[in-house]
Amino acid sequence: METSGARNITSNNKKQLEMNNETLEKMKQLRLFGMYDAFRTNLESSVKESLTTDQFISVLVASEWDDRRNRSVERTIRAAAFRYKASLEHIDYSIERGLDRNQVHRLAALDFIKEHKDLFITGSTGTGKSYLATALGYQACQNGYKVLYVNTAKLMGQLKLAKAKGTILAELKKIERVDLLILDDFGLQPFDPQSRVTLLDIIEDRHQKRSTIVTSQIPVKEWYDIIGEKTIADAVLDRIVHHSIRVELFGESMRRRNSKIENVFL
What does pTM read for this prediction? Predict the structure, then answer.
């Protein structure tokens, strides 16, 4: 026979369960997904019982904070449109190619972005220029900076289409707003008159306000000839060369080297 006390306990447990389910549903509707996961996990594991009210609230808020930050970083990475994933932790320093670990660590602090400085990474094909630039881009995304990765030639082509459609000003404004612009494979194709002017517009908009990473197989001293047209080349290089940070890589292509190693073990 069920006692009055037992009925009260059952009734209280039922009310508590209903209240918790209602709270979970409200969290979901409010898009408090971090809190939702933490609250549900604590209910299932009974960890909540060992926490004070203050501690439990702290757990919920911290979970929501982490969840929102992680989702923000994911959105920033998607918007950056990287060609592939890269990580500073996975950079190989064992191969002699002019890559200084201390310099990379200093760049990883992202002070050059805070100071609105530009970074040039030059070297022969396959030496890891794009990988280093992309890894720094990922680091910037994880620290809350807006990043855009583009192949230089493709960007110029896209902006030509935008000019024809009458939307180039809007596109240039988007480029101007990103904290870090990565211009990959700079100079692989010559700049025609329209591309030169567009390049100057991009550099002028970002000069001393935002940072740009440029990767190129062409040494910086030869960029003048790549850009062409004396007046525009002077204007572009005057704005980006003098206060830039430079990383110059050399040596055999990493892709070719890795291919040789793979063939040895076939």
Answer: 0.79
